[in-house]
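Posted in: Protein Modeling Q&A

I'm a second-year student putting together a small comparison for a lab meeting, and my supervisor asked me to include a predicted structure for NTP pyrophosphohydrolase MazG putative catalytic core domain-containing protein. I've never done this before, so apologies if this is the wrong subforum. The sequence is pasted below exactly as I got it from our records. If anyone can share the structure token output, I'd also love a short note on what stands out.
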Amino acid sequence: MQDTNKLPEGLERELLIVLMEECAEVQQQVSKILRFGALVTGPDNQRTNAELLAAEVGDLSHMIQRCIEIGLFTAEDIATAAEAKRTKLNRYLRHK
Ligand SMILES: [Mg+2]
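Accepted answer (user: helix_wrangler)
Welcome! Here is the predicted structure, written out as tokens:
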């Protein structure tokens, strides 16, 4: 049977793994803020949880850029999705 849906390998696979890891690190840092607060310093006793979240979002942003660079998706795809999210969020956010 011919495999018509070729699974990612090489650089694409590696970038997707790191992208996934960075998503998890963002989730973890959001959890720290919800548990302990945004202005409390993290384990390094230097940066606040908000600053640590910014660092993880920066890591994630870089991985998204790398996915664009290999042609997995485009910046336009992201802009379109972001605008759709803005519209949906404005409709459903309980706190405005
Ligand atoms: Mg990270």
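A couple of things worth pointing out for your meeting: Residues 12-92 form one domain. Residues 52 and 95 are 25 Å apart (CA to CA).
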